[in-house]
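Human: For the file, kindly provide a plain-text protein record giving the amino acid sequence and the backbone structure tokens, at your earliest convenience.
Assistant:
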Amino acid sequence: MKLNNNGFVGELPSSLKNCTELRVFDVGENKLSRLVPDWLGVSLSNLTILILRSNHFNGSMPSQLCNLTRIQLLDFSMNDIFGTILKCFNNFTTLAKKGNSSSTISSSSTGMTVEYIPNDGSSILKEKLSEDEASLIWKGKLSVYKSTLGLLISVDLSSNRLTGEIPCEIIEIVGMVSLNLSRNRLTGQITPEIEMLQSLDSLDQSRNQIYGKIPTSVFQIDGLDVLDLSNNNLFGKIPIVTVFVNKEDKD
């Protein structure tokens, strides 16, 4: 269900909870408001893609979102969500497995085919989607992904009013490719165990209130292409950087 980029207002109708087989739910770029409904994580537990980007949702993130074990792309950016980040990221089994997504997405002339493969590989559910693309903020700009969408694992909670420390459970999402927590009011320090996120291509924690030193482990994420820690309260020496050096130059 794609209802993005319209002028919808008010709250999400509770009747949507009856759409229990939804895999993709995108209502980004509207004027929707009120709380993020808890039934998103209860009735729509099969969601792979959930985009609420650029609306007027407020309140805290409901704990029921922890039930979205198949989630692959979660985008709540540019809203008015406050409170702390959920500590249940390690419940997101798709995000937590490197290179072992529960869904693969490919393009075809008739639309997009989504294949859902259980962990035991016992059965495969295939379905056609009318649109073969999804949009998300990637490396600072709005991008549209088509055939490569199945390879993308992304969490974007930027431009809200989130507070508190970044939960340590986040390092268990070893399959995550993009993490954007920028433009919030987050505190605490960058965990030295950040290097466990070896799949990260883009990490943005800018414009928060994060303090302390930059752990050297940040620069041990081999595939890291974009790193933004600007406008925080970091101090100390900048670690020796090798991750952005051309591999040929390293040799």
Q: What stands out?
A: The domain at 9-250 is CATH 3.80.10.10 (Leucine-rich repeat, LRR (right-handed beta-alpha superhelix)). The chain has one domain: 9-250. Residues 93-96 form the longest helix (4 residues). Helices lie at 93-96, 247-250.
